Each structure stands twice: as C-alpha cells, then as structure tokens.
Amino acid sequence: QQKVQQSPESLSVPEGGMASFNCTSSDRNFQYFWWYRQHSGEGPKALMSIFSDGDKKEGRFTAHLNKASLHVSLHIRDSQPSDSALYFCAASEHSGYAQGLTFGLGTRVSVFP
Amino acid sequence: DMKVTQMPRYLIKRMGENVLLECGQDMSHETMYWYRQDPGLGLQLIYISYDVDSNSEGDIPKGYRVSRKKREHFSLILDSAKTNQTSVYFCASSPGHTNTEVFFGKGTRLTVV
Prior knowledge:
The complex is a heterodimer.
Chain A: E1 4-7, E2 10-14, E3 19-25, E4 32-38, E5 45-50, E6 54-58, E7 61-66, E8 71-76, E9 85-92, E10 102-103, E11 107-112
Parallel strand pairs in A: 2-11
Antiparallel strand pairs in A: 1-3, 3-8, 4-5, 4-9, 6-7, 7-8, 9-10, 9-11
Chain B: E1 4-7, E2 10-13, E3 19-25, E4 31-38, E5 42-51, E6 54-57, E7 65-70, E8 73-78, E9 87-94, E10 103-104, E11 108-112
C-alpha cells in the first residue's frame, strides 16, 4: 500500500480558476511534506515545503497541513496554462535529515482556456 | 545556472547487457539520489549518497549499484539489465544533509529489450 496517497488522480480547472487537491500519509512517521510539480519530459521541481500545522502561502500556491490527521492539501489560485502538470506530494520522517522522499502517485492537473 | 545533468537522455539495451547511467551536478551538493519513475508506482528511491563513497540503499536497491568518486558525479550501474528495469531514471541532489529542496535532472528513459 502506498504510504503517501493523493487524490484525485486528475482534475481539470478553467484558466483563472482554483485547483485543489489532497495528500494523506498512512504512516505516522511521515510528518514532513513537500509539493513537487513535474511538466511533461522534465524532472520534478519543488514548489514548497510544509512542516508545521496550518497554512503556508507562496505566491498563487497555498499548502495546508493537519498533522493530527496527516492530511496535506495544495490550492492553486488563478490557475494558468503553465500550471498544467503532474503534482506530487512527498513526505519524509525527519525535518533535519535528508533520507530521501517518499512520493505519492501524483495528481494530474489540466488547465483549460 | 544550477542544474543536474543526466546522460544519456534515452537508452535502449538488450537484456543481460550492463548499463551505466551518469549524473552530474554543478551546485556542490553533498547529497545525491537515484529514483526511478514508473506508471502506477510513482517515484521510488533506489540509492542515496551523502558524499564521496558514502552510499545507502533506498527502497528498491536490488539489481542496482552506485558509484560516487567525486562529489559532483553519481553513477547508477545495472549489471545484466532485466526487462523489468525499463523505466525513467532520475538523478537528484540536495545541499547538505538536511531535509531541503531536492533538485532533479531531466531523466534518462531506459528501455531493456
């Protein structure tokens, strides 16, 4: 079973709209989360990390973490065609030690005009 | 321009042949990684390296070995490639040994026939 689960698998959002998707860890050791984005033919690129409960905003992107439920969400406001990509949630056990990330299967976002 | 470079980008090998995937980074990052990406399985960690000759197994190391003789280079070796090793392989790096942003290369698409 995937330790990091993402939903939905895919979604379509109109240009200028809000895209929202979710991530849950089934392993309570995984408490530190990242969001990565991968465009077709490219490697994943980090969008943001979230290690503390609550919201974290970076530009048009807002992440929310609930550590009690190990639930993370990402919201993209004013979606642009360039936001069309595969979005990965990634988790790790430590905030201060690099051990490799455990990735979910991703949510594919399509922004249509 | 900070980047992780992978060579070659595409590779076709016959079953039983040896495969060498090479990776370089120009950011003087201490930590480097090899992941593979497969549909339905997402990104899986093969090996992590904390510095020259300091390598640790990831989640799926079987059938692979690595070599890191210089901080900026990290190689993935498949001895006697198998068809189930057909995948897209990503090299990545991160600064220090803490849980910071991981920078990915563009990947190598390996087909074993």
